[in-house]
């Protein structure tokens, strides 16, 4: 398995975290790595490069010691068993975890074997086994010492992967003997833990760890923007996912999915007492889809309202049909900065450290701080729909006022210049007596993150008009998740939900590729884009072409070398509005346009004002730079994640299986495109089977 599950061992006071400070830093380390230092059997498994680390809070002066809490002491430990894919920050952490697990069950461990890098003393792999492994040597058979070895096979195999992380790639849990806790506690491995103290980490490690853990513990902003100085011990010990039977239900669900989908990933954040705090999971198709649609991602937290039983969150993208696609799910214990940082880092690492271009959330100070920490280069924007809903919910006495609704919509959508918007906003709050309204003031302070007049340099892929947070259910789970939906009900319908969405996308792909849309005008732009855009996006573009008839009076008002400024007039009912368009030509005769309405940034296709100007300047086709690949119907989008480097450990059958499965699934995905593709894929499989069979007969 590939990084399937990660647990934080309670004995190590560990939190699950992802140290993805900046992908560029990781890239620099990757360039410095000399592959000749490694032997052939250490080829890196990069299917989820930089996946996870277990970072110990003991490395910071802010770590909580929950074991000192009486309530924690009264609860039994529940250390999770080792699993293939676990990753640790160091060999010592991995050893301590397995040793703690062994002590809890009542057996001891030892190092069966270990190996180092070529021409170096640096350890690169080890096998930790039960102390009862093997049998006495012949020369020891007549000694008086009691026989304790029974040939037990229980063990874990560790190997060093990139960036000094250690990964479990083989696990055997079954023992052939009974456990003896008293004898095990007196064994060498457990005595060593009680006396050995971990040395102080280097300064750079301390700084990195403080950055991950200090802020949520000491200075956590709450939803109103105030700072909370809660005791870290209490915070660290009390955060847990309050869903009865959540851990076992999720484990069963994840294991079942992985039987048919080995590249399915899930991550679990466990507290110091072994309790489940946060969970994140993602299927390989979502990871592959993100490579095509990484420009805009919406973080939906609708289910975190008090009216929902399930604390579900979702990362949502927008596909080439303008539909929502699921890019990962999570269950969270609370809405704290610490939780959001863990969740965002988990998601980002599964996406190989590639942040979205635009990340859209609701307004929440803890969430905004976490976005700044994890996605510092992304354009963080607030959902306009959520902002408007917040305003309507908070203005007591005005919810049913049609006058207020019309005034708010006019202020938000009608103004093209910042100064006009801000003056109109001030007039509105004075008119309705909202000058000292807390929600109105807080939203206005963040206006540059949600008001359209400020967002003309932000690509939104149509999200500006997208209604996030349906009153009945999260928009992507509409019809599947309701206020009373339990975890069991959600998990039972999850795969059906995915299948429905994948089938719907396939049908829309087929419809877009085969059907010729009906044209409404004789304009060449319309006929050109009918051959390029998917059906839904073409319908939206078609509206802009049709609306060109409402535009007139193109006038050049300024010229400066290759750049010129024009004014395009548009009839809006009885009014006439003016839109400024910048038109520029380069030495290579390439055209660049920008309209004050921001249509291209908001929607991903040219607005009516630019189209009219291009037409009047003699361009018979939409310039290629304004035809985004994300909307094209002729692009072959292969939804099979291929995050590997191509290297396969020649002595590790697990990696053989993973590598072969990825390659085979690519053929399967292509074969699903049509009957013809299916026939070719089947023929390819038959040919491959025949070639493999030849090897067995030779």
Automatic annotation (TrEMBL):
<keyword id="KW-0862">Zinc</keyword>
<protein>
    <recommendedName>
        <fullName>Protein FAR1-RELATED SEQUENCE</fullName>
    </recommendedName>
</protein>
<dbReference type="Pfam" id="PF04434">
    <property type="entry name" value="SWIM"/>
</dbReference>
<dbReference type="GO" id="GO:0008270">
    <property type="term" value="F:zinc ion binding"/>
</dbReference>
<keyword id="KW-0863">Zinc-finger</keyword>
<keyword id="KW-0539">Nucleus</keyword>
<dbReference type="InterPro" id="IPR031052">
    <property type="entry name" value="FHY3/FAR1"/>
</dbReference>
<feature type="compositionally biased region" description="Basic residues">
    <location>
        <begin position="186"/>
        <end position="196"/>
    </location>
</feature>
<dbReference type="GO" id="GO:0006355">
    <property type="term" value="P:regulation of DNA-templated transcription"/>
</dbReference>
<comment type="similarity">
    <text>Belongs to the FHY3/FAR1 family.</text>
</comment>
<comment type="function">
    <text>Putative transcription activator involved in regulating light control of development.</text>
</comment>
<dbReference type="Pfam" id="PF10551">
    <property type="entry name" value="MULE"/>
</dbReference>
<dbReference type="Pfam" id="PF03101">
    <property type="entry name" value="FAR1"/>
</dbReference>
<dbReference type="InterPro" id="IPR018289">
    <property type="entry name" value="MULE_transposase_dom"/>
</dbReference>
<dbReference type="InterPro" id="IPR006564">
    <property type="entry name" value="Znf_PMZ"/>
</dbReference>
<dbReference type="InterPro" id="IPR007527">
    <property type="entry name" value="Znf_SWIM"/>
</dbReference>
<dbReference type="InterPro" id="IPR004330">
    <property type="entry name" value="FAR1_DNA_bnd_dom"/>
</dbReference>
<feature type="domain" description="SWIM-type">
    <location>
        <begin position="579"/>
        <end position="618"/>
    </location>
</feature>
<feature type="region of interest" description="Disordered">
    <location>
        <begin position="180"/>
        <end position="202"/>
    </location>
</feature>
<dbReference type="GO" id="GO:0005634">
    <property type="term" value="C:nucleus"/>
</dbReference>
<keyword id="KW-0479">Metal-binding</keyword>
């Amino acid at each position: 398995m590939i990084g399937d599950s990660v647990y934080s061992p309670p004995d190590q006071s560990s939190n699950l975290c992802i140290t993805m400070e900046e992908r560029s830093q990781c890239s620099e380390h990757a360039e410095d790595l000399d592959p000749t230092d490694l032997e052939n059997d250490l080829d890196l498994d990069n299917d989820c490069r930089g996946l996870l680390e277990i970072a110990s809070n003991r490395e910071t002066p802010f770590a909580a010691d929950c074991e000192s809490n009486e309530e924690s002491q009264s609860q039994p430990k529940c250390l999770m068993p080792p699993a293939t894919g676990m990753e640790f920050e160091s060999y010592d952490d991995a050893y301590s975890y397995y040793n703690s697990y062994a002590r809890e069950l009542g057996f001891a461990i030892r190092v069966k074997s270990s190996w180092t890098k070529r021409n170096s003393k640096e350890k690169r792999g080890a096998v930790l086994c039960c102390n009862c492994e093997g049998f006495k040597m012949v020369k020891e058979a007549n000694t008086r010492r009691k026989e304790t070895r029974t040939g037990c096979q229980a063990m874990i195999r560790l190997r060093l992967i990139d960036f000094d992380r250690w990964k479990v790639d083989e696990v055997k849990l079954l023992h052939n003997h009974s456990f003896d806790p008293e004898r095990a506690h007196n064994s060498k491995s457990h005595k060593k833990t009680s006396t050995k103290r971990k040395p102080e980490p280097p300064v750079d490690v301390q700084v990195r760890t403080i950055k991950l853990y200090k802020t949520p513990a000491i200075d956590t902003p709450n939803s109103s923007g105030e700072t909370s100085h809660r005791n870290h011990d209490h915070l660290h010990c009390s955060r847990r996912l309050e869903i009865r039977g959540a851990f076992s239900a999720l484990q069963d669900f994840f294991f079942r999915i992985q039987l048919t989908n080995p590249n399915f990933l899930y991550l679990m954040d466990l507290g110091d007492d072994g309790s489940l705090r946060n969970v994140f999971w993602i299927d390989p198709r979502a990871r592959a889809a993100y490579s095509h649609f990484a420009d805009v991602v919406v973080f939906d937290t609708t289910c975190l309202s008090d009216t929902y039983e399930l604390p579900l969150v979702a990362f949502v993208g927008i596909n080439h049909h303008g539909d929502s696609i699921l890019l990962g799910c999570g269950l969270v214990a609370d809405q704290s900065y610490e939780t959001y940082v863990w969740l965002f880092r988990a998601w980002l690492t599964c996406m190989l450290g590639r942040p979205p271009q635009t990340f859209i959330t609701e307004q929440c100070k803890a969430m905004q701080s976490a976005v700044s920490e994890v996605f510092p280069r992304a354009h963080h924007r607030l959902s306009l729909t959520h902002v408007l809903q917040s305003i309507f919910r908070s203005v007591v006495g005005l919810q049913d006022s049609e006058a207020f609704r019309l005034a708010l919509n006019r202020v938000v959508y009608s103004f093209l210049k910042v100064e006009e918007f801000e003056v109109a906003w001030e007039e509105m709050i004075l008119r309705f007596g909202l000058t000292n309204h807390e929600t109105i003031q807080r939203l206005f302070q963040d206006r540059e993150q949600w008001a359209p007049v400020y967002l003309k340099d932000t690509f939104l892929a149509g999200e500006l008009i997208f209604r996030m947070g349906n009153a009945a259910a999260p928009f992507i789970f509409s019809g599947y998740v309701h206020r009373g939906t339990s975890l069991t009900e959600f998990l039972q319908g999850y795969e059906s939900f995915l299948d429905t969405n994948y089938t719907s996308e396939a049908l829309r792909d087929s419809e877009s590729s085969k059907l010729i849309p009906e044209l409404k005008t004789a304009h060449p732009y319309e006929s050109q884009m009918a051959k390029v855009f998917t059906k839904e996006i073409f319908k939206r573009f078609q509206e802009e072409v049709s609306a060109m008839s409402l535009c007139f009076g193109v006038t050049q008002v300024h010229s400066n070398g290759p750049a010129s400024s024009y004014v395009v007039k548009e009839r809006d009912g009885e009014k006439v509005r003016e839109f400024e368009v910048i038109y520029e030509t380069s030495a290579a005769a390439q055209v660049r346009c920008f309209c004050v309405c921001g249509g291209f940034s908001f929607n991903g296709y040219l607005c009516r004002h630019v189209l009219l100007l291009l037409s009047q300047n003699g361009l018979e086709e939409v310039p290629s730079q304004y035809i985004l690949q994300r909307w094209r119907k002729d692009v072959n989008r292969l939804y099979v994640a291929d995050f590997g480097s191509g290297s396969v450990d020649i002595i590790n059958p697990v990696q053989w299986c993973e590598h072969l499965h990825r390659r085979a699934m690519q053929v399967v995905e292509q074969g699903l495109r049509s009957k013809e593709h299916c026939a070719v894929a089947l023929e390819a499989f038959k040919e491959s089977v025949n070639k493999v069979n030849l090897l067995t007969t030779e």
